[in-house]
Amino acid sequence: MTTAAGPLDSPRHEASNAEATNTAWDEHPANPFNFPKRRKWTVILAAAAVTLLVGLNATSIATPALVVAEEFHVSDDGFPNSFWPITVWNTGAALGPMIGLPLLENFGSRSGYLLCYAAFTIFVIPQAVAPNFATLLAVRGIAGALGGILQNAIEMFLADIFLTDEERNLPITLFTFVLAAGVTLGPVFGAIVHQLSWRWVFYIQLIIYSSLFPILLLAIPETRGPVLLSTHARKEPHLTSSAPETKKPPLSTLFRDAIVRPTRLLCTEPVVFFLTLWSSFCFGLVFILTQSVAQVYSTNYAFSDGASGLIQSSLFIGEIVGFLACIPQNSYYQRSGTKNRKEPGTPIPEARLPLSIPASLLGLAGGMFWYGWAGYPHVHWMLPTVGLGFVGFAIMVIITTVDMYLTDSYTKYAGSAVAAVAFGENIFAAWLPLAANKMYTVLGFQWASSLLGFVAVALTLAPVVLYFRGEAIRRRSPFIKEASYL
Question: How far apart, in whole angstroms, are the C-alpha atoms of residue 319 and residue 183?
Fold first, then answer.
C-alpha cells in the first residue's frame, strides 16, 4: 500500500486528465492504458513477485534472531533487543516511499524502479557480512526504505496501466496478498535456511534477487503516461498539438502532497483514522506473531526456533483462502451498481464490507481466542495452529477491504487515504511487536492472545458502522467536498 500520495490523487493526475482530451494519444499503442492484456499482466506479476520476495527480507531474520543476538552479544533481558533488525526495516519502509514514490512518478517508473531494486539487492550484501549489530541495523534501515518503495510501486503500476476500477479489482487483491504473504513467509524461509547459518538467510536472498534482475529488465517497461507522451511527441508532434498545455508540478509540491495530505486525512477524517487502526492492527499482528509463535511453541511443545518458524506457514494458508474469498466479494461489489438509486450503475463502496465483518469478528478475534486458549501443553500443537489459519484469512480480507473501500470512497484523494493507512501499517509492524514477549510473559499465553482478540472485537465496529452509515458519513466528509488540490 503506497505510503506516498498515490497516482489517483497526486498533481500528475491533473496532467493525465489533460492527456485524456488528446484523442491521438488516447488511441496510441504506446499509451500504457492500451498495452495488450498479456503485457499488463506481465508487469503486474513481475512487480508482485518483487513485493513478495522483498517481504522475505523484512521478516526472515525473525527465526534466527536469538542466534544473531548471541553472536553479537546482544541481550534480551528487560527488552527484546533481538527484534530491532525488523523494527528498523519497517521504519525505513514507512519513511522511504514518501521520498521515493514521488520521484518515480515525476521522472519515470522503469529506471527508478530498477535502480531501487539494484540498490536493494546490493544492500543485502552488508546484511550478510555485518561485523556487528550496529552495522546490521544501519543497513537494514536502508534496505527497508528501498524495500518499501519496491513493495508499494506496484500500486503506481496499477494506476498507470489499468483504466477502470473493475480492471483493478483483481490486481489490487493480488497486491494485498503478496504484500501480506511475503512478510508471513519470511520466518518460514528463515526456518528452512538458517540451519546453514543465519548469514545464509541473506546469501540465498542475494542469489534470488540477483537472478530476478534480468527478468525485471525485460518485464518492466516505462508505464508513466506523461513520460511516454513526452518521449513519443518528439517524433510525433501531433500527439501534443491538440492537448492543453500542462505545467509539470515541482518536486516540492509532490513531496508536500506525499506527507501533508495523508496526515490531514488521518487526523481529520474519522473513516480514515479508524480504518487505519483496523488495518494497521492486522498488519502489526503478523509481526507480533513472529514473536509469539516462537515463545508459545518452544515453551509448550519444545519446538526449536526453526520448527516454530515453520508454524507461520499456517498464516500463509489462511491468506490463500482469504485471497480466494475476495474474488467473489469483488464480483458482489460490481453487481451493487444495480442497486444504486442515486447513481445507477455505479458500485456502492459499502458493498466492499460484508465479507470483512465476519472475517474480523470470527476470523481475527475468534482466531486469536482459539490460538490462545488452545495453547496448552496437553493440547496437540495442531489446534492452536488452526487458529492461526483463521487469523491469516482475516488479515488478508481486512487489508484488501480497507484498501478498496478507501479507494472507492475518496476517489480524488484515494492515494493519500491509502498512504495514511500504509504508513500506520508499517509503524505498527515496526513498534507494536516490541511489547509481544513481555505481554505474553506477564499476562500468560491465553490472556495475551485474548487481549488481542478483544481489540479485534472492538475494531470490528468500524466496518459495521460504515456498512449501515457509510453513505451518510461520506456526505459529511470535508475532503470529499473539496474541489481543489492542496
Answer: 12
CA dihedral sign of residues 224, 230, 233, 239: positive
Q: Which of 4, 2, 55, 6 has its CA nearest to residue 429?
A: 55
Query: For the purposes of burial, counting CB atoms within 10 Å of the CB of 323, is it exposed (0-12), middle (13-18) or buried (19 or more)?
Result: buried
How wide is the angle at C-alpha 437 spanned by C-alphas 320 and 374, nearest 5°? 55
The pLDDT of residue 365 is 97
Q: Evaluate if residue 243 carries a pLDDT over 70.
A: no
CA-wise closest residue to 49 among 177, 160, 165, 184: 177
Residue 247 has pLDDT above 80, yes or no: no
Q: Are 164 and 14 in contact (CB under 8 A)?
A: no
- Rounded CA-CA distance 184/437 in Å is 18
Find where cell 490463500 sits.
320
Which pLDDT belongs to residue 268?
86
3-state secondary structure 101-117: HHHHHHHCHHHHHHHHH
What's the pTM?
A: 0.89
The predicted pLDDT at position 263 comes to 86
Q: CB neighbours of 303 closer than 8 A, spacing ≥ 6?
A: 297, 311, 381
